[in-house]
Write a structure and sequence with these properties.
Blueprint (H helix, E strand, L loop, with lengths): L9 H9 L1 H6 L9 H15 L10 H17 L5 E11 L5 E13 L2 E7 L11 H14 L4 E7 L4 E7 L2 H16 L21 H18 L10 H30 L20 H8 L5 H5 L6 H16 L3 H11 L20
Length: 357
Amino acid sequence: MPGTHHINSPSKLDAIASCPGRGRAASGLEHEESSAAAAEGTMLHAVMAGEIEAPDDLTEEQKDLLQQCRDYERLHFTSDGELLREAHVTLMDDEMGIITEGTADLVMVDGDTIKALDWKFGRMWVKPDGLQAKAYAAALMQTFGVGVVEFHIFQPRAGGGKPVLFSDFAALRDEIQQVIARADDATAPFIPGDHCCYCPIHHTCTACQSWTAGDAVAARDALAETNAAALLDPRTVGTKLKAWRFAKKLGAELEAMCFEMTEAGQDTGFKLFERAGRKTITDPQKAYELLQNDIALPDFMALVQIPAGKLEEAVTRNIKERLDCSLKAAKTEMWTQLAPVVEQGKPSRVMSEIKTK
């Protein structure tokens, strides 16, 4: 569960491996992608840990996420073994010094077999064989005296779960110690890249700012007519697009910060002003009654659109209870019933970065 404060906790190891300088510079700081996302993740972890009851105001998506987690747990963690939730584990060196420590969401001990799991509720894929998983596996081997650990990272929003077997304790511990040693070096380099998005100091990091600004300009120039030759190299175009997307994300975060400062009366060079909100028709039937002298009913109904997402949220829970089925089956049933009045829009093509799993 989120909350560990160890300077080199398992969840931070992949980040400091990508940028060793971050280990010292960002010590004690946490990146908040959004307070709402962080609060949601903490709440969902607490529900799965049995620390709290599921709140009554859960969205249908959140209920579905929890159900997927429960289904995954039943599939992979059902046996006669001892089941531990929120198990604190520590990886130590030969002198009994703490290398790293954290909390595994779920650990199952069945004789010489150890299985462990970490829930991830974010939308970004986390490598199931990354340093976080390796650190937990090594700590579990050391704690329980076993030679093999089956570690799962289940991330329902980002692609599901994938178990990985770890067995070479010495190699795992050595790799982790080397990563931490590089980060502890006072001359550890700052290496910018896509991982900067999740760093708590990327707003002030000189390396990140230079990389972002330089590649954003380069990406713009690559698309300019005078630099059309750059478009001949697909990898170059793809690299510059990644940098441009990061620059847009950074700009959005800076805009939010500037808004708060401006609202607080600080001199940012910007000012706030009121803009009229969008008009919303809250009662379509009453609206037609008021306008029926000027528009025919078929013409009026052709203008009425129902938000599909809100309709799903309002209806699928009732269908689920009525049919005693899964949320996915309830959604399918709803759209089957609505088939005579649903018009499928034209498919659109989207481009997503290829992730290495």
